[in-house]
Amino acid sequence: MFAPGRHFRVLALSICVLSACASSPPVPEPPAALQQAVVLDALGQIGRPYRYGGADPSGFDCSGLVQYVFAQAGVQLPRTTRAQYRAGVPIETKALEPGDLLFYRFEKGPVDHVAIYLGDGQAVHAPASGRAVIVAAVDLPYWQRHFVTATRVLR
Questions:
Q1: Which of 12, 17, 127, 153 has its CA 20 to 30 A from that of 51?
Q2: In the predicted structure, residue 15 carries a pLDDT above the cut 90
Q3: pTM of the prediction?
Q4: Catalytic residue numbers?
Q5: In this structure, are residues 71 and 53 in contact, taking their beta carbons and an 8 Å threshold?
Q6: Nearest one of 54, 78, 76, 71 to 133, comparing CA atoms
Q7: CATH of 28-152, one of 3.20.20.70, 2.40.160.20, 3.40.50.360, 3.90.1720.10
Q8: CB neighbours of 111 closer than 8 A, spacing ≥ 6?
Q9: Under 8 Å CB-to-CB from 152, ≥6 apart: which residues?
């Protein structure tokens, strides 16, 4: 015999179980010492010139800036934006913490620009040739239009 109440309970239980499996686990908090070191060093690079392929204070490109700043904090990251993207743990923007990485797309491919989130809606970028390392609001339409995702470096 058909028991509609029983089937409904089984269906409801199945949905609850499946939705629990579909929700993403919380991302661990970044170490406070790493956050502080990354933010302070990133701020110390403001005004440094942009240099394609640059990875030191004489000139930075975006991924070179990220690699340099994290290295100063004792964390070795890959050199390219795409490899840095793969090295982090994806996070939602509502979970952003200082030191998290923001990834953008301006050309073809998954990502081609990276910035360091400072907190309070601000990020450090090594933006383009002829410019210097800057702080910019993440909610500016220019950056929002090109935003792809954010990641957290945990090591």
A1: 153
A2: no
A3: 0.83
A4: 62, 113, 125
A5: no
A6: 54
A7: 3.90.1720.10
A8: 81, 82, 85, 103, 104, 105, 148, 149
A9: 27, 28, 30, 88, 89, 91, 97, 99, 100, 101
